[in-house]
Each structure stands twice: as C-alpha cells, then as structure tokens.
Specification:
The chain has 76 residues and is an alpha+beta fold. 47% of the residues lie in helices and 28% in strands. It has a three-stranded antiparallel beta sheet with strand order 2-1-3. A hairpin with a 5-residue loop joins strand 1 and strand 2. The longest helix has 17 residues.
Length: 76
C-alpha cells in the first residue's frame, strides 16, 4: 500500500462539519490502512445520506510526511 493521506470532509449549509483522515483512524483507533479506508467510506456514505456535501482528499505523502507518519503504515 502506498503512503497516502486520505481525508473525508463533510459540510452542511448550517455550518455543521466533520473531518476525518486515515492517519487519525490508524493512530487513534489503531486501524490498519485498509480498515481506515473502509471506515472513511462508511463515514462518507453516512454523511452523504444525511444531506452533507462530502469531499475526498487523497494525496501521496512526501518524504517529510512519510518520516512523520510512516510507522503507522509499517505496523501492518
């Protein structure tokens, strides 16, 4: 699996919002990279069903980011 940052951002016109990334799920919830992506898909679907505008952000991590977060990927 590549070192990739993935984030779901959900916004509503009333100002409500939610943001979650694979890195936070891997760090705090102790999920594997694949499990974190599945959890983000579920989050995306739940917020979309509730009328939120939901966006995916995906980007390959640069060397500095890999140095900071890479151990999360190596645990699995």
């Amino acid at each position: 699996m590549p070192y990739e940052f993935i984030q779901v951002t959900a916004r509503k016109d009333n100002g409500d919002f939610a943001v979650c990334s694979n890195l936070s799920m891997m760090d705090y919830r102790k999920l594997s990279p694949a499990e974190a992506v599945l959890a983000l898909v579920e989050m995306y679907q739940e917020y979309e069903a509730e009328g939120y505008t939901v966006e995916w952000t995906r980007k390959q991590m640069d060397q500095d980011e890999i140095e900071i977060w890479g151990d999360l990927f190596k645990m699995y």
